[in-house]
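Per your request, structure below.
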């Protein structure tokens, strides 16, 4: 029987595994022990998880122990795509474990493309419809975006028999998909693959697989990196609108930003982060500069993008925006601190409040999006691309609201005109705040009384604010309400500047009188004469200008 065990083993490429195979053959023929040969079989698998230290690990190893090979398996599981069209032709045992642990991911709420025959895939095929009206979920059926085809999950990773649902390109003949699915799910090889999938999944949950030690190390490493990636810090800094990074990107530097400083603080009381920091400290200064600690700016940006995508999907799915079908859009452009034109996107729709069961109007902020062209045509392309990314149909748009800019409300080349050419039911409503501001601003600039009045309000603020001593005097007379300057952006913001004069005009006069009586400041005077036709309003203050 010497050499009979070789048919159960695949030939390795390196010489070390070849020597192990020879040892396995000799020990199998001499001892005939089934347990020993089974151990050697695991060590010589096509893609073994082997190191010099792992071969000496006993069964009582703590789950917190981490091996280098488990780290690579974790990185594969984090970067391996859910798209079956991108899976390799030959799937090894490590990828099988990752895919079974993750499970099949069915594409939902996706705009499936139409082929040349005018047909497309539908979520209807995710269920098997019986003649008695019952539905059985086909959890093994998965869709590939890259290939625009469907696959059988279990036959793709376990199948040895060639099938149209398990080959490299999958099945995309939508006209005969129903018939093909009925034949496939009743075939013997499909049932065997489903059985293998269920058995492996149950063994992985109960940790009764042959490579239990490797799975324990893999789970420990996965848990370690989930704890190291501090998503809570990213959520806290984002919610508080705090800066993430400083002038330095290295940990333990003086000015390395709020994120890394928060990580250093967490390491003072969290054992996992303390161990991660200790690993970095063990490296020398020269090697630490290039060490991957997964706390850099790229990881932060990826986490922010993942959180933003999750919130956006929650708004579109959980908030019933797609279910309500009809919606309105509100857009407004403004330059940011880096002089980049940013457009604010807000979607409004009617939804049912699950708490009080009342119909309400929901308004959701989608995000700030940079734009390169602020013309009507450029804004139209932006809106069309945005709706395509959000999987929203522009024909369901029933309202659009913008400011009074020519690129927005222009009746020939404005954004609202171009959208009306695509969807005539998208009713345009100009922003009421912008319109009211323009009306009030133009009306106030007609008369000299209003312009002189606001000039005096501004002069009073400038008079007190240019001197710390005068500002302390006005604060002594008006401790609660402070003087405010005029704002040129919105007319409604001038209310805060008028309130001190409206409610505390006598206290402002007392402050001016106290300054005029102060002998140390009597070096000049300021006179604001009234214009012809206005009331005789004089502010004469003997002070230094």
């Amino acid at each position: 029987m010497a050499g009979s065990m070789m048919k159960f083993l695949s030939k390795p490429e390196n010489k070390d595994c070849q020597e192990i195979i020879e040892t396995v053959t000799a020990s199998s023929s001499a001892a005939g022990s089934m347990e020993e040969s089974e151990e050697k079989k695991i060590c010589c698998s096509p893609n073994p998880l082997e190191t010099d230290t792992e071969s000496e690990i006993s069964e009582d190893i703590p789950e917190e122990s981490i091996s280098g090979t488990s780290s690579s398996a974790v990185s594969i599981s984090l970067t391996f795509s859910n798209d079956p069209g991108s899976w390799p032709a030959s799937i090894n045992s490590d990828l099988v474990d990752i895919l079974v642990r993750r499970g099949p991911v069915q594409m939902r709420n996706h705009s499936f493309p139409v082929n040349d025959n005018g047909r497309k895939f539908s979520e209807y095929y995710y269920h098997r419809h019986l003649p008695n009206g019952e539905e059985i979920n086909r959890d093994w059926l998965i869709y590939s975006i890259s290939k625009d085809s469907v696959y059988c999950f279990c036959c793709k990773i376990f199948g040895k028999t060639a099938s149209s649902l398990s080959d490299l390109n999958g099945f995309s003949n939508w006209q005969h998909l129903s018939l093909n699915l009925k034949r496939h799910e009743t075939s013997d090889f499909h049932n065997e693959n489903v059985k293998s999938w269920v058995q492996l999944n149950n063994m992985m949950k109960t940790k009764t697989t042959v490579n239990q030690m490797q799975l324990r190390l893999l789970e420990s490493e996965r848990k370690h990196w989930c704890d190291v990636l501090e998503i809570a810090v990213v959520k806290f800094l984002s919610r508080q609108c705090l800066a993430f990074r400083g002038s330095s990107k290295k940990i333990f530097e003086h000015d390395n930003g709020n994120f890394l400083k928060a990580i250093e603080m967490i390491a003072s009381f969290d054992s996992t982060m303390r161990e991660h920091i200790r690993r970095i400290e063990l490296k020398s200064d020269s090697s630490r500069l290039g060490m991957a600690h997964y706390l850099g700016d790229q990881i932060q940006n990826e986490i922010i993008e993942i959180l933003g995508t999750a919130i956006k999907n929650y708004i579109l799915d959980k908030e019933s925006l797609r279910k309500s079908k009809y919606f309105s859009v509100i857009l407004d452009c403004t330059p940011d601190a880096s002089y980049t034109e940013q457009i604010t996107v807000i979607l409004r729709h009617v939804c049912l409040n699950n708490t009080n069961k009342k119909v309400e109007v929901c308004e959701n902020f989608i995000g700030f999006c940079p734009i390169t062209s602020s013309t009507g045509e450029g804004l139209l392309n932006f809106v069309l691309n945005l709706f395509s990314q959000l999987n929203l149909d522009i024909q369901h748009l029933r309202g659009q609201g913008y400011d009074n800019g020519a690129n927005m409300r222009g009746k020939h080349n404005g954004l609202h005109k171009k959208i009306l050419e695509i969807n005539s039911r998208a009713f345009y409503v100009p922003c009421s705040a912008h319109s009211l501001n323009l009306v009030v601003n133009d009306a106030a600039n007609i008369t000299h009384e209003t312009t002189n009045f606001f000039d005096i309000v501004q002069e009073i603020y400038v008079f007190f604010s240019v001197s710390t001593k005068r500002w302390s005097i006005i604060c002594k007379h008006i401790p609660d309400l402070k003087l405010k300057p005029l704002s040129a952006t919105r007319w409604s913001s001038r209310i805060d500047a008028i309130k001190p004069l409206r409610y505390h005009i006598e206290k402002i006069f007392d402050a001016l009188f106290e300054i005029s009586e102060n002998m140390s400041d009597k070096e000049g005077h300021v006179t604001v004469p009234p214009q012809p036709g206005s009331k005789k309003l004089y502010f004469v203050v003997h002070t230094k200008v």
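Confidence is low (pLDDT under 50) at residues 14-21, 23-78, 286-290, 521-545.

Regards,
D.
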